Each structure stands twice: as structure tokens, then as C-alpha cells.
UniProtKB/TrEMBL annotation:
Organism: Prosthecochloris marina
InterPro entries: COQ10_START, START-like_dom_sf
Signal peptide interval: 1-25
Residue segments, region Disordered: 197-224
Spans traversing the lipid bilayer: none
Keywords: Signal
Protein family membership: Belongs to the ribosome association toxin RatA family.
Ranges of residues in domain Coenzyme Q-binding protein COQ10 START: 68-191
Official protein name in the record: Cyclase
Claim: Signal is one of the keywords in the record: yes
């Protein structure tokens, strides 16, 4: 049977957002001082690799001026994803066993003339307040596994890394899928940053002042 071609489908899946990444897909470069400096300067960093079997490892990192606990409330607010996350039309926790949950979602997206609506079912494993992993149970992918990692940066805020190993069960030009994934992962991370920094539990003015003073000193920036 010929597999259907839906390059748009990959777009909305990236907005499922509780998807994060397998350990092998985590960005190994986040700890490098040069990239920490880029993140502290407000840049969103994205990496993507595709192997010969069309399995995609994609990861992204962003710095958020908020505490991990606040960011955690944003990325675990599953039932409200239709109101907070683009492309998600329905999101329901159908089974809740404490830190292990099963979630069903329906998303709708489109690229140019392609319009796609589809559903997924995933197992979520929460390790408060720094790791949230997921595994695909059923849906429109052969593989979709991953996790969020929240890493506090001294007292100033949090580095947030999302990564995933993905293989669609449909065919589409690789360059289209890759470009859309990079674009939509960037939008996802920046949405999380906006929601987290607008919360009442963001970094206090005193901590933000310390950060501004420290980063204005070239020697301090070099040591970040």
C-alpha cells in the first residue's frame, strides 16, 4: 500500500507539546559556555539530524526568566492546551495515575493547500520539577518519543531543553518536514517562554538586577 503524503501533519504534532525527547536526542551542546551565553542573550537554539532510515532527532533549547516550578505548570496544563498551544483542538487526560498519565489529543494544521486533522494517544511520565517524558501509544507516527528537561541556572532562571526522536508513518519531502519542524519547535519554545515569564512566579526583580549586573561585566559573561 502506498503511504499517503501529508507534509502538513508534522506541523501540528510539534504543537502536541507534551512530547519531549529520548535521552539520545538531548542537545549535548547545552553545557558549552558559548551556547549558554547565546541562550542568556535570548536566542532560541534548534538542532535537527535525519538518518538514512528517515528517523529524525530534533532538539531545541531556550532560556526562561522563571523558576522550574512555574514552567512545569505550563507544560503540564494538558487539558488547557487548546487555549494555550497553537494547532491543538482537543486535549484530554483519560487516565491519571499520579506522575503517569495517558493523554489523547486532536490537532489540526495546514501548509499551503494541505489541511490535516489527526489524533494521538501518549503515555506521559512526570518527574517533578525537571523532567517530563512521553511515549507514543498510537497515532500517525511510527516513532515519537522524548522528554522535556528543565535545568536551573544559578538563581537567574531556567534552561529548557526539548528533544524528540520522530518517524512519521507517511511520506513527504525531507527538506519540507525538516524546515517545518525547526520553525514550529522554535515557536513552541517561545510560546512556553512567553507564558512562563508572564506568570506571577517569575524571577524576582532582585534576582533580575543581579543578572543584569553580572552579565554587563565581560568577565562574568565569559564565566556563564
Amino acid at each position: 500500500m502506498t503511504k499517503r503524503t501529508h507534509p502538513a501533519m508534522i506541523v501540528s504534532v510539534l504543537f502536541l507539546f507534551f512530547f519531549a525527547a529520548s535521552a539520545t536526542a538531548e542537545s549535548p551542546r547545552l553545557n558549552l559556555p558559548s551556547e549558554q551565553t547565546r541562550l542568556l542573550d535570548g536566542e532560541t537554539i534548534i538542532f535537527l539530524e535525519r538518518d538514512d532510515d528517515d528517523v529524525i532527532d530534533v532538539s531545541g533549547s531556550v532560556y526562561i526568566r522563571s523558576v522550574p516550578e512555574t514552567i512545569w505548570t505550563v507544560i503540564t496544563d494538558y487539558d488547557n492546551f487548546p487555549d494555550t498551544m497553537p494547532k491543538v483542538k482537543e486535549s484530554t487526560v483519560i487516565e491519571d495515575n499520579g506522575n503517569i498519565k495517558i493523554i489523547e489529543q486532536t490537532s489540526k494544521t495546514g501548509v499551503l493547500f494541505f489541511k490535516v486533522k489527526f489524533s494521538t494517544k501518549m503515555t506521559i511520565i512526570e518527574t517533578f520539577p525537571d523532567t517530563l517524558s512521553f511515549n507514543l501509544i498510537s497515532g500517525d507516527f511510527e516513532t515519537f518519543n522524548g522528554k522535556w528537561v528543565l535545568t536551573p541556572h544559578e538563581e537567574y532562571g531556567t534552561f529548557v531543553t526539548w528533544s524528540a526522536t520522530v518517524k512519521p508513518d507517511f511520506s513527504a519531502p525531507g527538506f519540507i518536514i525538516d524546515a517545518v519542524q525547526k520553525r514550529d519547535l522554535r515557536e513552541l519554545l517561545e510560546t512556553i517562554r512567553e507564558l512562563s515569564e508572564s506568570s506571577k512566579a517569575t524571577v524576582s526583580p532582585e534576582r533580575e538586577t543581579k543578572k543584569t549586573v553580572a552579565l554587563s561585566n565581560p568577565e562574568e559573561r565569559k564565566n556563564q
